[in-house]
């Protein structure tokens, strides 16, 4: 396992990453991006085990409902880079369980990559969203054929890919880019049906970062984003060579959507669990503010808080149902129930603005205007 300092040092590997028009040669030392490094390093130190054969609990593949339930608070505590790594591993495990009809070499490669990641205690980000260009047209009919990441050359020992992936959270702060199709592909779209793992420092990879981090010397008005922020990366693949042992799909259009659907399941579970945690916080905050304002006994305030409690309870129930009704894949890995996961995530997102509006009504403008 890596310590936080070892993680920081691992980022000095020649990767090509940029921010606000400048090359970033020292991510840990960067005044803005460095805070993300520090947050991630703290997660490493939090779970470090010096035993020579230790594996981070954040990299464990769940095999039961209890494993799934126990993992959620760990990921919330460890931060975004641990979350995207965990979901990357589970995406590959889920896809492997759904790809029995393709050549078994893909599944062997996925399992080998997972084991390598666990031993190396690395961080992985998912690269899924393509530029897409004219969204009314499929990949093969784009004016720019690189609007979707594609294979431009197949060689004896690997493939060469070209294109870009957008909105990749934390892309510059991991070690591997799990690059997968963004959607289902059809016959004639074999070159765009590519799934693979690419090192962040691979020749031809360039990452352009943006961040919502506040640009203020005094960040006390930004108690969350001032300390915890994860830049988004525009990841460019400029004729990047990928050896076949890191290729998990190459041309089998029927299975392109498997990766997107597999990732979607785990991202929705992560989103649902985050909504559940935040809903409880919003309810508690609403009650505290009402008590501070002397309005906790007023009927319409009590009604609003009651609605917030109902919302928090319902989405927690869907999370518990998704976990308790998990299924076990052919290799023994546990997967959350898709129906409960999707229903819970939809309900949480669809009603989020309504719940926050209740909090605004209860709190009043002082929350934003108090110095």
Which CATH architecture of the largest domain would you pick?
Beta Barrel
Secondary structure class reads: alpha+beta
Helix content: 40-55%
| Share of residues in strands | 15-25%
**What overall geometry do the principal axes of the alpha carbons give?**
globular
CATH fold assignment of the largest domain: Butyryl-CoA Dehydrogenase, subunit A, domain 2
Give the biggest sheet.
6 strands, mixed
The averaged pLDDT comes out at 93
Key phrases:
single chain; 371 residues; alpha+beta; Butyryl-CoA Dehydrogenase, subunit A, domain 2; Butyryl-CoA Dehydrogenase, subunit A, domain 3; 2 domains; 9 helices; globular
Can you describe this structure in just a few lines?
With 371 residues, this protein is α+β, with helices and mostly antiparallel strands. The protein has helices spanning 4-10, 33-46, 65-78, 80-97, 104-120, 256-293, 299-324, 338-363, 366-369; strands at residues 17-19, 22-23, 124-127, 150-155, 158-169, 176-179, 194-199, 205-210, 232-243, 247-250, 327-328, 334-335. β4 and β5 form a beta hairpin.
């Amino acid at each position: 396992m890596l310590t936080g300092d070892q993680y920081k040092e691992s980022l000095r590997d020649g990767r090509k990453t940029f921010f606000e028009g400048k090359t970033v040669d020292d991510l840990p030392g960067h005044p803005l991006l460095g805070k993300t490094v520090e947050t991630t390093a703290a997660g490493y130190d939090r779970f470090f085990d010096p035993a020579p054969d230790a594996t981070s609990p954040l990299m464990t593949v769940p095999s039961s409902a209890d494993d799934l339930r126990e993992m959620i608070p760990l990921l919330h505590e460890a931060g975004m880079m641990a979350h995207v790594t965990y979901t990357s591993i589970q995406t590959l495990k889920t896809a492997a369980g759904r790809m029995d009809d393709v050549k078994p070499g893909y599944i062997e490669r996925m399992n080998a990559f997972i084991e390598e990641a666990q031993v190396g205690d690395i961080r992985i980000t998912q690269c899924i969203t393509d530029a897409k260009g004219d969204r009314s047209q499929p990949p093969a009919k784009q004016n720019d054929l690189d609007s979707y990441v594609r294979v431009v050359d197949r060689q004896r020992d690997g493939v060469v890919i070209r294109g870009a992936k957008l909105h990749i959270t934390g892309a510059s702060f991991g070690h591997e880019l799990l690059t997968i199709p963004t959607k289902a592909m059809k016959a004639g779209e074999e070159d765009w049906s590519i799934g693979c793992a690419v090192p962040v420092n691979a020749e031809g990879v360039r990452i352009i970062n943006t961040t919502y981090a506040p640009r203020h010397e005094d960040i006390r008005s930004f108690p969350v984003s001032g300390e915890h922020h994860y830049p988004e990366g525009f990841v460019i693949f400029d004729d990047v060579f990928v050896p076949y042992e890191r290729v998990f799909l190459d041309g089998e259009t029927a299975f392109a959507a498997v990766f997107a659907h597999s990732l979607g399941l785990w991202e929705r579970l992560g989103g649902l669990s985050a909504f559940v945690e935040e809903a409880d916080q919003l309810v508690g905050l609403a009650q505290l503010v009402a008590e501070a304002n002397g309005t906790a006994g007023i009927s319409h305030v009590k009604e609003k808080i009651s609605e917030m409690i109902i919302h928090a309870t319902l989405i927690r129930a869907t999370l518990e149902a998704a976990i308790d009704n998990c299924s076990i894949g052919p290799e023994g890995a546990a997967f959350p129930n898709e129906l409960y996961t999707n229903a819970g995530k939809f309900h949480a997102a669809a009603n989020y603005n309504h719940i926050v509006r209740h909090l605004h009504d209860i709190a009043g403008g002082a929350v934003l205007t108090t110095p």
